[in-house]
Design goal:
single chain, mainly alpha, de novo design (two linked rop proteins), 4 helices, 70% helix, elongated
């Protein structure tokens, strides 16, 4: 039974990811402190933060919206990890592990979001 956002496996994994991103970016070039380091840390912290905020909302629609934001931040982080790796910043293995965890979290967020989303009305195809 889920009584709190802290009971959610996806939230715990997202917190672990944020911590790993802080540790990973500690070794990035000092010149990147206000560049990619700042962007990656914000994206990483946004994922569990939005999962928690959504869980605390009173409607399924609001929860779904915050999961959508968390999912977007997660994709943003994946992109930043790709860029950091291509630039040779950080430990390649740590980047690969963070990328894998981020992908797992993305799948979990998507699964929850699909369960929360009410059935959408059928759309009329304007080109038909």
């Amino acid at each position: 039974m889920v009584n709190s956002y802290r009971d959610l496996k996806v939230w715990r994994k997202a917190v672990d990811l944020a911590i790993s991103i802080y540790r990973l970016t500690e070794r990035f070039p000092h010149a990147e402190t206000f560049g990619i380091v700042s962007q990656m840390r914000r994206s990483a912290v946004s994922v569990p933060s939005n999962i928690a905020e959504g869980h605390g909302r009173l409607t399924r629609r609001d929860y779904h919206q915050f999961l959508s934001i968390a999912r977007g931040s997660n994709f943003e982080l994946q992109t930043q990890l790709e860029i950091a790796g291509s630039l040779g910043f950080g430990d390649p293995l740590a980047i690969q592990q963070a990328q894998a965890l981020s992908e797992e979290i993305g799948k979990m967020i998507y699964a929850i979001a699909v369960k929360l989303k009410p059935s959408a009305p059928a759309r009329v195809n304007p080109s038909a």
